[in-house]
Amino acid sequence: MRNTFILFFILLSMNLFAQSNPQGLIDTFFNTYKVDAGKAVKELYGTNKWTERVKDDIDKVVGTVNGFTESYMGKYYGQELITIKKFSESFVLYSYLVKYDRQPIRFIFKFYKPNDKWVLYSYALDDSLDDEIQEAAKLYYLNLDKD
Question: What confidence tier does 18 reach under pLDDT thresholds 50, 70, 90?
Answer without folding.
Answer: very low
